[in-house]
Amino acid sequence: MEMLSLVSTLVQMSPTCQVQQRLLPFLRLKILGIGQSNATAANWVARNVIAHVPATNITAIAVGSEVLTSLPNAAPVLVSALKFIQAALVAANLDQQIKVSTPHSSSVILDSFPPSQAFFNKTWDPVMVPLLNFLQSTGSYLMLNVYPYYDYMQSNGVVPLDYALFRPLPPNKEAIDSNTLLHYTNVFDAIVDAAYFAMSYLKFTNIPILVTESGWPSKGDSSEPDATVDNANTYNSNLIRHVLNNSGTPKQPGIAVSTYIYELYNEDLKSGPVSENNWGLFYASGAQVYTLHLTNSGTVFANDTTNQTFCVAKSNADSKMLQAALDWACGPGKVDCSPLLQGQSCYEPNSVASHATYAINSYYQQMAKSAGTCDFKGVASITTTNPMVVKMLPA
């Protein structure tokens, strides 16, 4: 397999886009090329970043995805890749607006409970120390993927389900760090604090943490009985509340941890356990998997959907009929469908259902939701669920 990695761009798209992702589709990038060539990095930034600002509010570039654990052969050039991307941003006067980092699997942290004794796998010290130096010097953050689901599944019953799902625990059930006497009411906070303590172990104490992925699967196979719609809804709803209350973690109270939900759409073609295909808030068709319970959680959706209606493609609609609806909306319907073009903001996911939902909802909205403007020969229906992405707001 060719040595490829991923560069994701954290953005806030225009509210007119159906796929309003703050985490753009991962852009494939040869880390070895970027890490060995300043010019290659500059060219990539010019094409994928400079060309899209300020229309797109890009706030961070995540170089790679769990490189140390999934692409260890690229680890020696990882910091160089970050530095070259950073240099290109400096040259474009974008380094204050856009930060550069790389997401890590939480498995790079060893002895993660109690959090106070956690440390990074020393195998990666030759990479981790210069990486943390880079993050500190550029004012960036440590990106971390946090999955309490896996901690729960791999604990052989030691981690209670309620503790993983942010459900309230009686005081005698809370986990206590015997070294600091800090109380932990959920797995998420414990993992984040383990990362803070691991950085402290290496003498870095002022680098914030950004959680680039967190979620819960809505379906699993027979060995994954707790991958359910109810648990996925409970986890993500409670996660949103937890982040938005700005309480921080026991080690860093009051310092909110900006978090991104994994993921927008189910990935039907992924291999592995059934759960691998079922982390999304929406099916590939654009239909919702579940409606998040967000009472008293503040503004979370891309737009306030209270008392609003939207027009979406039916999940069982014939693809040819959907294509016809898409063609009509983008033609006689006079919808601006340029965001659906390849390389544009709403191209992904590249499916007829997704593109049709964008087009028919845009037509429905521009017609002021008039009666009869959301039918398209029976392939569309009205919903109160905004087809745009549910997103986490930064602190």
TrEMBL record:
The record ties this protein, via InterPro entries, to: GH (IPR017853), Glyco_hydro_17 (IPR000490), Glyco_hydro_17_plant (IPR044965), X8 (IPR012946)
Q: Which residue intervals define the domain X8 in the entry? A: 309-391
Q: How does it sit in the membrane?
A: Lipid-anchor; GPI-anchor
Q: Which keywords fit this entry according to its UniProt record?
A: Cell membrane, Disulfide bond, Glycoprotein, Glycosidase, GPI-anchor, Hydrolase, Lipoprotein, Membrane, Plant defense, Signal
**Catalytic reaction list:** Hydrolysis of (1->3)-beta-D-glucosidic linkages in (1->3)-beta-D-glucans
Q: What class of enzyme is it?
A: hydrolase
Cellular location(s): Cell membrane
Give EC number(s), comma-separated: 3.2.1.39
Give the record's GO biological process terms. Answer: carbohydrate metabolic process; defense response
Question: Is Lipoprotein a UniProt keyword of this protein?
Answer: yes
One Pfam family from the record: Glyco_hydro_17
In its keyword annotation, does this UniProt entry include Nucleotide-binding? no
GO CC term, one of those recorded = plasmodesma
Q: Which PROSITE patterns match?
A: GLYCOSYL_HYDROL_F17
Q: Which domain of life is it from?
A: Eukaryota
Please give the Gene Ontology molecular function terms for this protein.
glucan endo-1,3-beta-D-glucosidase activity
- What is the similarity comment for this entry? Belongs to the glycosyl hydrolase 17 family.
This chain belongs to the protein called glucan endo-1,3-beta-D-glucosidase
**Source organism per UniProt:** Glycine max (Soybean)
**Lineage of origin:** Eukaryota, Viridiplantae, Streptophyta, Embryophyta, Tracheophyta
